[in-house]
Amino acid sequence: MVALCHCLLVLTVDGLNNIWFTSFSEAAGIQSAITRFLLLFLNGGAAVTVFFVLSGYVLGLSLDKHSVTFGRTIAFYFKRIFRLYPAHIVTMAGIVISICFFHDYMLFEAGSGWYAEWYRFDLDASTIVNNLTLKENYLNHIAWSLQVEIAGSLFLPFAYLLSRKTGIVVNLAILGLLVALSAKVSNLYLFFLYVFYAGLMLPLIYKALKDSLAGSSGTVLLLFGTAMVCGARTIVGLGNMFGFILIETFGSVLIIGYLLNPENSGSWFNRFLARDVINRLGRYSYSFYLLHFIILYWIAYLLFHVVSADILSSVPLLFGVGMAAVSIPVTFWLSGKMYHHVEVPMMRLGKRLVGD
């Protein structure tokens, strides 16, 4: 979803400089209307919300394996560093080398405002260091979510103790307090804490809703959750971040809850997710997520040099689909290499170092 979303944002569409921030009523032609419709389902921002909920759930399962002591908490943090940073550092090295040696910033007539935002300035040491340490995210657009993921990882062991030692009522009260905190703060790290906590609560939510998440009622809840995830930003508007993230979070809980129910194992959704290529994409997804943005950037950069602005502006939707058709397979192949040669060895090293 993130990759396809980005591919549709590279070009101006019907003269609109940034289709992401364009409402349906502002669509200036058939291509902008179709693109805006596709972005309902290829909603990269909503996909990241699903990821944060899923991350809270999966990290909770990881913490279930051991008693949460001070030593185990430090080990958990240590493993998260080895999980997140090595692939990020390798990606950053590739970005820095490519920008330093092969890039001249240009404004392209057919390029969107979103595309024009990136790599406008010469790199200096402080920018590189700040992006490597995730103090900034300018060099890899998607790295803002890594900043949030790290904050969520720091929060999870303490939230885990509260969640697992209390029942559904106390958990809902804690969730409510975190939602209220999110409504009051502008800090990105604090804003998403309740999203992780919703994922951490999923075993309790699933237990309470298990019967409703199966059969025809489960299908209805799956469709309702999907509509919440895909439509939240259109319903409440992109200016209401608190509102659309809240809706996306509860939609994500319904979707993941549906998938947890073994009675739904024969559904078309589960059969689709069980396909080998989807399982491999799941394993490679972190590297894929890190790599796709810069690969798409360079494919678009080349495209702007070899195809005239008039042609690009006449059929931007076609070229957006074409960039997806090229960038996604290339990223999938490279992400497989990075998964096997960077992610897996570093995860194993992290576990060995903490004796896990």
Could you name the key traits of this structure?
356 residues; mainly alpha; 17 helices; globular
Polypeptide structure, described:
With 356 residues, the protein is mainly α. 75% of the residues lie in helices and 0% in strands. It contains 17 helices and no strands. Helix 4 runs antiparallel to helix 7. The radius of gyration is 21 Å and the shape is globular.
- What is the arithmetic mean of pLDDT? 94
Could you give a short account of the major beta sheet?
none
Taken as a percent bin, the fraction of beta residues is under 5%
Number-wise, the strands total 0
Distance between the termini: 34 Å
Structural class: mainly alpha
Coarse shape: globular
Low-confidence stretches: none
How many whole angstroms does the radius of gyration measure? 21 Å
The number of helical elements comes to 17
Strand and helix order: HHHHHHHHHHHHHHHHH
Helix content: over 70%
Q: How are the secondary structure elements laid out?
A:
Blueprint: H1 2-9, H2 30-41, H3 44-63, H4 70-102, H5 113-116, H6 125-132, H7 144-164, H8 168-184, H9 188-191, H10 193-200, H11 202-209, H12 215-236, H13 241-260, H14 268-273, H15 276-306, H16 309-314, H17 316-353
Summarize the structure.
The protein has 356 residues and is mainly α. It has 17 helices and no strands.
